[in-house]
TrEMBL record:
Species of provenance: Amphiprion ocellaris (Clown anemonefish)
Protein family per UniProt: Belongs to the membrane-bound acyltransferase family. HHAT subfamily.
Region spans: Disordered: 459-478
Name assigned to this protein: Hedgehog acyltransferase like, a
Transmembrane segments: 44-62, 68-98, 142-160, 180-198, 219-239, 330-348, 395-413, 433-451
Alphabetical keyword list: Endoplasmic reticulum, Membrane, Transmembrane, Transmembrane helix
């Protein structure tokens, strides 16, 4: 009864008055979305609009110094929003990582960076640092941890790129200009230092054909998606229902499967829209930012599963690909995935739920390689070689369909709760077997085949046409 009352209370707190004239209440369970597009929408728009105006003026007046203007405007905006103590804290993190960067030892950069990151993620150090930031407003916690966390990750990228620099060192002002670029400062995405430095200091500022049209189209598309999500929040309470376990248990197997899937789709939409808004601003600054993550519907392997392409690119470049190489050695892959998810766990904030999420995703990534290695051995490789390409794709599709639901279950626990993920897993694997299990897998299998066919056609389009031999070459060959 106590759990039931808690769930009912959580449901009531997550549903607030919405469209009064239509008599609809609104699902407000996602604080991050509400912060961006409702509560603090005007503040964020004001800061980003100011950046766009200043950046455009100084890009026209002094294109050689535009990266300096980006840093100065961003630094002043952060100072006004968060105060001197927060600015001093971020600068101290930058000084530590810059000092270590001068030594040009990658392991020292990782030790310094991860220790600094741990200081804002682990008690009692994070509470002590947060208490230094004076003032109190609703967004202080979010901006504090976002600003400090992303600053440290950017500082590590700067330090690691400085280790690769053969002649001399990058300057401290290069780090500050990189770190205080306002659109990326609080919420990301992470753009590695080598890419940002090259693009922000490029003075040949030209637009591709129809680039402004594409930027405008994307901005209008994001606005349309925001409105559609707002409609869904008033009619489909997909974020709040999983918090009421008593209600969730009454749902059919298909409803539960759809609810788990829609939660992941929503999280992808949120990431795509929020990063898309920031990317639109940075594209106006002649930067090429990390693209939104791949849609969950298009995923069927753990190797492509991520919801923040910036962090994913950072981890792949400095950890996963660096240790794992070409990812075909079992023990190297195990070490690479372990290190990658250890850093990811620290980045997300160590707790029981994050440990479970990291373990299962790490296992899924390695299990894919183990299965691939196993089926590459005779007689399986011989059998696959004898069958046609289409039949091979169909058989792989069966495994990919099961893998898709492993991805859904392993990630829905971090978006909702461990109890909800366990309930979905029990219903789809045990209680719903065989009818619900096989029917859900069949529909997923059909979807995976559509995705595979689309990828195959794209690969054929991107494949360069074979060069035809000249007439003279033909005669010589004859």
């Amino acid at each position: 009864a106590q759990v039931y009352n808690v769930n009912r209370k959580a449901f009531k707190e997550s549903v607030k008055p919405g469209w009064h004239y239509f008599g609809r209440k609104m699902d407000v369970a996602d604080f991050e979305w509400m912060m961006w597009f409702s509560t603090f929408r005007n503040h964020i728009l004001f800061a980003l609009a100011g950046h766009v105006i200043f950046a455009k003026i100084f890009t026209l007046v002094a294109p050689k110094h535009r990266s300096l203007i980006f840093g100065v405007y961003g630094g002043l905006a952060v100072l006004i929003m968060m105060g001197w103590t927060f600015m001093a804290l971020v600068l101290s993190h930058c000084i530590i990582l810059y000092s270590v960067a001068l030594v040009k030892r990658k392991w020292m950069c990782f030790v310094a960076g991860l220790t600094t990151l741990a200081s804002i993620k682990l008690e009692p150090y994070n509470s002590w640092q947060e208490s230094l930031v004076t003032g109190s407003f609703d967004l202080q916690d979010i901006l504090f941890y976002g600003g400090c966390g992303f600053s440290i990750i950017r500082g590590m990228s700067f330090a690691l790129e400085n280790c690769e620099k053969k002649d001399g060192n990058f300057t401290f002002s290069d780090l500050l200009k990189y770190n205080f670029y306002l659109p990326f400062f609080f919420f990301g995405p992470i753009m590695t230092f080598d890419r940002f430095h090259a693009q922000a200091n490029n003075t040949q500022l030209t637009r591709k054909e129809r680039e402004m049209w594409n930027i405008t189209t994307k901005a209008l598309l994001h606005l349309g998606v925001i409105l559609v999500v707002d409609v869904f929040f008033h009619y489909l309470y997909i974020l709040t229902i999983p918090s009421d376990m008593k209600l969730a248990t009454k749902l059919s197997d298909w409803c539960l499967a759809g609810l788990a899937y829609s939660n992941l789709v929503y999280d992808w939409v949120k990431a795509a829209v929020m990063f898309g808004v920031i990317n639109t601003v940075s594209t106006l600054d002649h930067l090429d930012p990390p693209q939104p993550p791949k849609c969950i519907t298009m995923l069927y392997v753990f190797a492509e599963t991520h919801f923040d392409r910036g962090i994913n690119d950072w981890l792949c470049k400095y950890v996963y690909d660096y240790i794992g190489g070409d990812h075909d050695k079992i023990f190297k892959e195990l070490l690479a995935t372990f290190c990658t998810f250890a850093i990811t766990t620290l980045w997300l904030g160590p707790c029981e739920l994050v440990y479970i999420w990291s373990f299962f995703n790490c296992f899924g990534l390695n299990f894919e390689l183990w299965v691939a290695k196993f089926f590459s051995l005779p007689p399986f490789s011989t059998i696959e070689g004898a069958m046609g390409e289409a039949m091979s794709r169909r058989i792989r599709g069966v495994f990919n369909a099961a893998n898709f639901w492993a991805i859904v279950l392993y990630n829905v626990l971090s978006l909702n709760s461990l109890e909800f993920a366990k309930m979905v897993g029990r219903r789809l694997i045990f209680k719903g077997f065989p009818l619900s299990t096989l029917s859900v897998l069949f529909v997923t299998y059909c979807g995976v085949q559509l995705v595979k066919e689309r990828e195959r056609q794209q690969a054929l389009l991107e494949e360069p046409e074979p060069v035809k031999p000249a007439e003279g070459d033909k005669e010589k060959a004859e």
